[in-house]
From TrEMBL:
<keyword id="KW-1003">Cell membrane</keyword>
<feature type="transmembrane region" description="Helical">
    <location>
        <begin position="96"/>
        <end position="114"/>
    </location>
</feature>
<keyword id="KW-0813">Transport</keyword>
<dbReference type="InterPro" id="IPR045018">
    <property type="entry name" value="Azg-like"/>
</dbReference>
<dbReference type="GO" id="GO:0005345">
    <property type="term" value="F:purine nucleobase transmembrane transporter activity"/>
</dbReference>
<feature type="transmembrane region" description="Helical">
    <location>
        <begin position="448"/>
        <end position="468"/>
    </location>
</feature>
<feature type="transmembrane region" description="Helical">
    <location>
        <begin position="214"/>
        <end position="236"/>
    </location>
</feature>
<keyword id="KW-1133">Transmembrane helix</keyword>
<dbReference type="Pfam" id="PF00860">
    <property type="entry name" value="Xan_ur_permease"/>
</dbReference>
<feature type="transmembrane region" description="Helical">
    <location>
        <begin position="69"/>
        <end position="89"/>
    </location>
</feature>
<keyword id="KW-0812">Transmembrane</keyword>
<feature type="transmembrane region" description="Helical">
    <location>
        <begin position="256"/>
        <end position="282"/>
    </location>
</feature>
<keyword id="KW-0472">Membrane</keyword>
<feature type="transmembrane region" description="Helical">
    <location>
        <begin position="151"/>
        <end position="175"/>
    </location>
</feature>
<feature type="transmembrane region" description="Helical">
    <location>
        <begin position="181"/>
        <end position="207"/>
    </location>
</feature>
<feature type="transmembrane region" description="Helical">
    <location>
        <begin position="375"/>
        <end position="393"/>
    </location>
</feature>
<dbReference type="InterPro" id="IPR026033">
    <property type="entry name" value="Azg-like_bact_archaea"/>
</dbReference>
Length: 470
C-alpha cells in the first residue's frame, strides 16, 4: 500500500509487480557497465603487460585492485543517481557512468591531451556542478539553441563508431598497420580474436532475439569459454583468455574518493575548460535525447513533444555526475536501456528504485570485474556502438548544410580517437557552410562564437603552443 501511494501507481495504470519486473529488466540490460566501465577507465603504465594504456593508475595498487575499486565506485554512483531519479524525479530511468564519456575520459583527456586523471575527475565534478546550477535555473532551452542541430543528431553515431573501434582493437579484430593505419587482425589464428568473434556474434544473436541482459550474458559466457579452454589445455595460459583470479575482493575506495581535489593543482585553464565543455555537451544532449526517446515510448510527452518537468531527471543526472566524480568515476548519464523496463510496463520511480537497489546488491560481485578478461568486456562496446549508429537517421542528409557538419562530426571522432575533436569539427563547419549556401540567416551569434572558440583551440592544440603533457 505504501509503495502504491508513494509512487501513485494507480494514477499511471501500473502496479507493484509490474514496476519490480520492469526494474529487474532495466538492470539486466545495463548491468554490463559494472565490468565495462573499469576496463575502460583503469590504465596500465609503460612496461606493464598489456600496457601502456591511458586511464586511472594507482601506483601502490595492482591493475586488478584498481579495477575493483572503480567497479565499486561505478555501482555507488549508479545507485545514487538512479535512486535520486526514483525519489526526486519519479521516473523509470536507470543511470550509470556513460559509455563514450568514459572512453573520452581515458583515451582523449588522459591519453591524447596528457591531462592527469585526477584533473580529469576534477573536470567531471565541475561539469556536474555546472549542470546542477543550469538545471536549477531552467537554462535548458538556451543551451539547446546554442548548438547546431546536425551536430546534436550526429554525436551519438560518432560516439558509436568511437566505441566500436576501441572494442574491436581490444578484441584483436582490428590491429594497427604501418601502411594502412588499421587492418584486420589474425582472426583465424589468435585465440583472443577467435573467441572474441564468436562471443561477439553470439551476443548479437541474443540481442537480436530480444533476450533481456543479452550483453552481460554474452560477456559472461565468452569469459567462461576462455577459462574453460585454458583449464582444459586447449590453449596455453599465456594466450590471454583469462582475467585475474588472484586478486581478492577490494572495497577500500579511499585512494579514489576525493582524488579530484588534487586535480585542480597546476591546471591549464584553456584545456581544462575544453574538457569540461565536452563532458557537459555530450552528457547534456545524450541525457536529453535519451529522456525524450524513452519518454515517448512510455507516453510521458505532452502535445508539443516535450517531457513535463524534465528538469527533475536532468537534476538526477547532474547529481549523479557530481557524486561520481567525487568518488572517482567519469560522467553519469541516463541509459537508453531504460526503454526495456518501459516496454515491460515501468512507469514510475519505483522502477528506478528497483534498479538502484540492485546496483547496491551487486557490490557483492565486485571481484567479477577483475575476473572478466578485457576482450570479453569490450564486446559491449561493439554491440552498443552498432546500436548507436541508428541515431544518424535523424540528420537531414539531403541538405548539405546539415550533412557536412554531421558527416564531419561522425568521421572525425573515430579517426582522431577523440569525441571532442569530432564535436569541434561539426561546430566549426556549420556556420561556414550555412554562409557559403547563402543561408547565414539560419545561424545565431552563438554558432559563430563557438566556431571561433574551436578554431582557436585547434590552432593552440596542434600548433605546438601546448606542451606534450598539459
Amino acid at each position: 500500500m505504501a509503495l502504491r501511494d508513494t509512487f501513485a501507481l494507480a494514477d499511471r495504470d501500473t502496479d507493484v509487480s509490474t514496476e519490480i519486473r520492469a526494474g529487474i529488466t532495466t538492470f539486466l540490460t545495463m548491468s554490463y557497465i559494472v565490468v565495462v566501465n573499469p576496463s575502460i577507465l583503469v590504465g596500465l603504465p609503460e612496461g606493464a603487460e598489456g600496457g601502456p594504456k591511458p586511464g586511472i593508475i594507482l601506483g601502490n595498487y595492482s591493475y586488478a585492485e584498481t579495477v575493483q575499486m572503480v567497479a565499486v565506485v561505478t555501482l555507488l554512483s549508479a545507485a545514487v543517481a538512479t535512486l535520486v531519479m526514483a525519489v526526486y524525479a519519479d521516473r523509470p530511468f536507470g543511470q550509470a557512468p556513460g559509455l563514450g564519456l568514459n572512453a573520452f575520459f581515458a583515451f582523449t583527456v588522459v591519453g591524447a591531451l596528457g591531462v592527469p586523471w585526477r584533473t580529469a575527475l576534477a573536470a567531471v565534478v565541475v561539469e556536474g556542478v555546472v549542470f546542477v546550477l543550469l538545471t536549477a535555473v531552467g537554462a535548458r532551452e538556451y543551451i539547446i539553441r546554442a548548438f547546431p542541430e546536425p551536430v546534436k543528431f550526429a554525436v551519438g553515431t560518432g560516439i558509436g563508431l568511437f566505441l566500436a573501434i576501441i572494442g574491436l582493437e581490444a578484441m584483436g579484430i582490428v590491429v594497427d598497420d604501418p601502411s594502412t593505419l588499421v587492418t584486420l587482425g589474425a582472426v583465424a589464428s589468435d585465440p583472443v580474436a577467435i573467441l572474441s568473434v564468436l562471443g561477439l556474434f553470439f551476443t548479437f544473436m541474443l540481442y537480436a532475439r530480444g533476450v533481456r541482459g543479452a550483453i552481460i550474458l554474452g560477456i559472461l559466457l565468452t569469459s567462461a569459454a576462455g577459462y574453460a579452454l585454458t583449464a582444459s589445455g586447449v590453449v596455453a595460459p599465456s594466450a590471454g583468455l583469462t582475467g585475474d583470479l588472484s586478486a581478492g575482493a577490494t572495497y577500500d575506495i579511499s585512494p579514489l574518493v576525493g582524488a579530484f581535489v588534487a586535480g585542480f593543482e597546476g591546471v591549464d585553464a584553456f584545456t581544462f575548460a575544453l574538457v569540461v565543455f565536452t563532458f557537459f555537451f555530450v552528457d547534456f544532449f545524450d541525457t536529453a535525447g535519451t529522456l525524450t526517446g524513452v519518454s515517448q515510448a512510455a507516453g510521458f510527452l505532452d502535445e508539443e513533444g516535450n517531457l513535463p518537468d524534465i528538469d527533475r531527471p536532468l537534476m538526477a543526472d547532474a547529481v549523479g555526475t557530481t557524486v561520481g566524480g567525487m568518488l572517482g568515476t567519469s560522467t553519469v548519464t541516463t541509459y537508453v536501456e531504460s526503454a526495456t523496463g518501459v516496454e515491460e510496463g515501468g512507469r514510475t520511480g519505483l522502477t528506478a528504485l528497483v534498479v538502484g537497489l540492485l546496483f547496491l546488491v551487486s557490490l557483492a560481485f565486485v571481484p567479477l570485474a577483475a575476473w572478466i578478461p578485457q576482450y570479453a568486456s569490450h564486446i559491449a562496446l561493439v554491440v552498443i556502438g552498432v546500436v548507436m549508429l541508428r541515431n544518424v537517421v535523424e540528420v537531414a542528409w539531403d541538405d548539405l548544410t546539415a550533412a557536412i557538419p554531421a558527416g564531419l562530426t561522425v568521421l572525425v571522432m573515430p579517426f582522431t580517437y577523440s569525441i571532442s575533436y569530432g564535436i569541434a569539427a561539426g561546430i566549426v563547419s556549420y556556420p561556414v557552410v550555412k554562409l557559403a549556401a547563402g543561408r547565414a540567416d539560419e545561424t545565431r551569434p552563438g554558432h559563430w562564437a563557438l566556431a571561433a572558440a574551436f578554431v582557436v583551440y585547434f590552432v593552440v592544440r596542434t600548433g605546438g603552443f601546448l606542451a606534450a603533457n598539459v
